[in-house]
Amino acid sequence: MKINPILKKEWLVENQKYIQQSKADFKLILKLIELISSNDWEMFYPESSNLLHCKQTIECINKVNFNNQSTVSAVYIVKNERDTLLKSLESLNGLADEIIIVDTGSTDGTLEMLATLSKNDDSISLYSFEWCDDFSKARNFANSKANGDWIISFDADEKITDFESLKLLLTYLKIFDDYPKTVFNLNIVRDEITYKTGKIIQNLPCFSYKGRVHETYFSVVGDIHYANINIDIISQNRTTSEKVEYYNRLLLLTIKDEPLNLRWLYLYLRDNFDSIKYTQMKELSHNYFFSNSSNRNKENFKENYYNVRVILLHMYKALQNGEISDFEKYQQMISDVAYNQTDYIFLKFTLKLLRIQERISNDLEEMLIDCCEIETDDSIFSVSYLNSVLATYLLLDGNPQKSKEMFRKLFGDNSDFPCFLTSSMKEFLLGNK
Asked: Fewer CB atoms near the end CB (10 Å): N or C, the chain?
């Protein structure tokens, strides 16, 4: 890609006099560029304001013809989806130029339903694929049957919310260049959870799926860049215990298939995080973090996206198991690359909180022992002062109700009673007095 197609609206408006598009199509372009963003593209194709660049950009915009749209192949692999697939197909709104459906062994009447649909709709092509415990092989087979300029992969339960705008955006993007290293993410809305996942590629031979499960695109041209398209796909949470168990088996097989690709280990640890033991996690990850397993210094750490994420999982598990020295070792390994990530900051300050809580618990225990040894009432300050410190420690040690009772009694006995609480703590304890 020579020119970043994500243009600034201000620049477009400023150069509108040079853009040979109708007012309607110009407004449409302004709307479409708001649908797409990409940190990768910003990194690899920095903004340029030189005259040649501006001329090339305007030439591309002038070539956009929404009356001659890019063709899109909607591609499915399905099994026993008779009751869900129709709604997904309806969401395409008749705008997919072809629909490729690969059945992997349905027994519920899905095949018969699809055979009837394909007879009445020339855009639907139906194929069969013998299941071999590998989602990537099935998806690659399905993609090989696609003839459109673009391929969008669907699951049978997924409904796209605005296929029309998506098709117009892809028409706009195709004018600028080919995208042999870009995968386009869509928003997956599943119940109350929304996340992005790679759904769209240009139909080029360089792309293929990898992974028996949780499959993802790779390109023989180089590392994948991602662009986000702000269009939603509505999905369903259809997770079952049987599916989780099956996916785990496939993930372990994928780890054996590709032992050097940390993505699969990360997904396995993520999916089984609550049940896997810390010792198991360390055993599985033992040789992944360093380029030389005999040299485990920070300088020898293999920095990449999934390595960092696996270490973040290890840090959390180390905290759960009280392995603070392990936590600090992992923290040191990724501090330079993860210092501004939400997960890293969360874990860093969780450790600080745990240390504060440990110190408070130790101090409270020491205080209670000291109080038990008091032998005289010959004190300068009222015993209420001592009780106020005890009540504060109880609050900080996780006993707010007992602390609140003590403080209310203390302040009830003497409204001018001095204390060393912050204003927010005082409001919390006495606000409903």
From this structure: C
